[in-house]
Amino acid sequence: MVSMEDFKDPTELRALVLKYVQTQAFRTWGTFVAFAFVVFWVFSSGDFSFLLTLSSLVSMFSFLMVAMTIESGKTVKGVSLKMMECYIFVFFCRLCAIIPFEGYLPFDKSGDWLYQVCEAFGLCLAGSIVYCCRVQYASTYDPATDTLNHLYLILPALGVALILHPHLNNFLPSDIAWAFALYLESVTVLPQLFMFMKEGKAQPHTSHFLAAQALSRLMSFIFWASSFSELSNPDHYIKQFVGNWVVVVQLVQLLVMGDFIYHYIRCIQKGIPVSEVLCSSNV
Fold first, then answer.
1. How far apart are CA 168 and CA 232, in angstroms?
2. Three state DSSP letters for the chain
3. From CA 49, how far away is CA 52, in angstroms rounded?
């Protein structure tokens, strides 16, 4: 456990820094932070709405990390196919709302094309991971541990989106598509969490993936929590609460992932491999 005495002793501090630098979590997040800083410096206009682009960038990074790990290891062990198939719906529907229209785009120059590119890359990466699970490395996928029926997530999300959707695009199909993507995304990680519980352990890359998704959702939550009034229609007796509902849905996802993130952070603090994130006796 880290104590204040460790920071007072230069030798102990150096050993502590080296301990964290050598962890996979540090290398993973260090790489992303450096990349995100460059992107922010080049593409951001300093507008608060860049947070939405940064959220998409974090999400894309998490998919890239999983795809690269799968390709290098030639295995999809520990990856939930059901979750990745849900993400295909999420990215596709969101792209239907942000490519032809501008209602849900960041206000700064990252909304000109960077945000859309991040979402499109996310769709391609999710599709490639699904291909690996179903075709290329199908022999390494274990459906016995990936048992949560994702239709139980897709259909309710669609039903709610048909009733509670914003109107920023002023085009009903695209507004419903955006709402459906957001609602489905709030519960898409559940198949992976159920898979963790079934297996009794977590793969490092899927642990990092969920942590990155939690960070992405936190950024999105902060953005929409400050802008939720724009999503509501004050003249409609139901849709006047759409903005509030969007914030609540994202907050629910953060709460659902809260226990996992707590143990993930504790693993990093203690220098324990994140694959042991479910071993409460170690964390």
1. 9
2. CCCHHHHHCHHHHHHHHHHHHCCHHHHHHHHHHHHHHHHHHHHCCCCCCHHHHHHHHHHHHHHHHHHHHHHHHCCCCCCCHHHHHHHHHHHHHHHHHHCCCCCCCCCCHHHCCHHHHHHHHHHHHHHHHHHHHHHHCHHHCCHHHCCCCCHHHHHHHHHHHHHCCCCCCCCHHHHHHHHHHHHHHCCCCHHHHHHHHHHCCCCHHHHHHHHHHHHHHHHHHHHHHHHHHHHCCCCCCCHHHHHHHHHHHHHHHHHHCHHHHHHHHHHHHHCCCHHHCCCCCCC
3. 6
Question: How does residue 153 score in pLDDT terms, banded at 50, 70 and 90?
Answer: very high
**Cβ–Cβ under 8 Å, residues 51 and 216:** no
d(CA 160, CA 235): 20
Q: What is the pTM of this model?
A: 0.86
| Residue 66 one-letter amino acid | V
pLDDT digit string, tens, across residues 254-267:
988 988 888 888 88
Which residue, chain included where needed, has tokens 């080296």? Answer: 18
| Beta carbons within 8 Å of 9's beta carbon, 6+ residues apart | none
Q: What is the dihedral of CA 176, 178, 184, 188, to 10 degrees?
A: 160
CA 24 to CA 208: how far, in whole Å? 10
Amino acid sitting at position 272: I
